[in-house]
Each structure stands twice: as C-alpha cells, then as structure tokens.
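Title: Prediction job returns without error message
Component: structure pipeline
Severity: low
Priority: P3
Assignee: unassigned

Description:
Job completed but the reporter wants confirmation the result is attached to the right record. Sequence as submitted:
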Amino acid sequence: MTILYVILAIFLFGVLIAVHELGHFMVAKACGVKVEEFAIGMGPALFKRQKGETLYSLRCVPIGGFCAMAGEDEDSEDPRAFTNQAAWKRALILAAGSFMNFLLGLIIVLGLYWNAGSFRAPVLADFMEGCPYESAQGLQAGDRFYSIDGHRIYQYYDVADFLARGDGRYDIVLIRDGEKIRLKDYTLVPLEYEGQENRMYGFYLGYDEASPGVKLRYTWNTAMEFGRWVWMGLQQLVSGQVGLSDMSGPVGIVDLMAETGEQAESTADAVYNILYLGAFIAVNLAMMNMLPIPALDGGRIFFLLITWAIESLSHRRLNPKYEGYIHAAGMVMLLGLMAIVMFNDIFRIVTG
C-alpha cells in the first residue's frame, strides 16, 4: 500500500500547486492581462496546446507549475502586459494564488467534516466532585472558552495546550449566555481527585451537535488553527528553536503523507489523514507565499507597494527590470534553500 499512498501524496501535492497557479491565471484573465503560458508541472512538456493567445502545457515533473504573464518582470509596450496594469490589479493577481490555496484547504476540511455527527468542543460540560473552580465568580457549566492569555481557543485541545503553557494564573475569556466574561489573573492548577491517578483540572469538556452552521464554524476554526501552527513554526525558526534539519520540502512532505497513510488503521482512515494533512499544507502554502520575501507572491506585493509609493511621490515610472533582478536573486536563494532541504529529506528517508 505504500506506493499507493506515495502516488496519492504526489497527486495531492501537485493539485495544491496547480490550484495556486490557477488562481493567478483566472484573476489575470479577468483583469485582461495577457497570459502567454499556463503550465501544470515542471520540466519538459508532455502535452502542449495553443488556445488563443495562451499555451497550455502539462509537464513531466508533477510538482510545481507556473502562469507566465507578458511583461511580468520587464518593460513592455503591450498595454495588456502585467507591468502596465494598475497596482490594485497586480496585487489581486499576485494574492490570488494564496487565496486559492486557502480556499482549497477550507473545502478539503469541510468535505472531511461533512458527515460528522458532533464535534468535541471547548465547552464546560460538567465538573468532578469537589472541584473548587465551579462557582458564580469562576467557571460554570455551559461556559465556552474563547481565549486563554490572549490565545484564541479554536478546538477543544487548545484548552489543555494553553493551560499547560501557563504558570497557574491566567487571563481567561469565556462565552456565557452569549456574552463575554473575563476572569483576570484567575488561578487554575491541576489538583488531586479521588479515583484519579494524575492531577486534573477537574472539569469535562462537551460536544457541539454538527449542524450545517457548526460544520462551517469548525471548518473555519480548523483553518485558523492551521494558520496558528504555521505562525508558531515560523517563530520557532526565527528564534532558532528549530533549524534547517527540521524543515521539509516536497520530497519530505510526500514521504510524510505516505507515512501518515501507512500508520492509519484502515484505508479510509489513511485517505482521511492524508487529506487532513493536505488541507494543512494548503493553508501553509497560502501563508508562506504571502511572506514579504523576494520571489514569493508576498515579496512581489511588498515591492509593488514600495514602487507605487515612490512613483506616486516622484511622478516617475521605475524600470521593472530592477525589481526583476531582486526577485531573480531571491529565487536563486530559495532554490538553494530547497536543494538543501531536499538533500536533508532524502538523507532522512535513506538513513531512517
């Protein structure tokens, strides 16, 4: 079954990239920009077809793709060239890829949740006997955790996670009878309870019935949770808590997806877990691509804003080739980073 999961993982990863490029393509066409080629995959072309002004191609390496627009990084006399469009149009085109990745992540999660009967919820259902935290001034049955120490609570496991990160005194916001209740500097520590081997907080979390509206809410909350994981990972990378050896590229991601499938108890569980991981990667790609780094969409938008500000003040048009040089240098560095990460991925797989 391993090869089946590898194929599924490669296909899913290819879909994530294709959807990203499709976002650029659709918005570029809608804005009247001339698209010279739309390609799925990288490397030599397996299939090509010219339709109108655009060449559509399917390439042999099923990871990657591109949407080549006229005048993307150079001056052009064509009024439909990318660089000759209004700044807001260019920004929409650049942001469309990440938007489509995020949207795909939402759609995958919604599909996974659609047959759910209920969801574990960050809602207080009951208390253990003798729990001192149940009171009119403290916690009450039916309270929904909204945030702990400023961290939004999206899923039931966030409650234990953020309580474990604290020191026993918390700033807790609850939703009670439709209103926000704040417990400032609230003491909440695990205690011993009769019949329990480990210390516990002394309360039980309940469930939300999976109505269509609740499914949509949990779909959104899951995407927000994914985004928080990505942000926390970036913070750990910047702070040095994790290094390049902990990062994964396409090879590592495909291997992780296949391993996720292999560890599942059934084929259905494997597909579910791979799709769930795929949804996380979709949101990950959406956020990473919007970072203000040269060659990434976020970097292009960042330089677009700077260029627009300079041109508005100086009333002079800047030559886009200079920005193109910056993005080309950024691309070289990103490719170098990808090569290092890919080597680490292959080394881990071979030696693991």
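Comment from assignee: result matches the submitted record. The chain has two domains: 2-114+256-351, 118-209.
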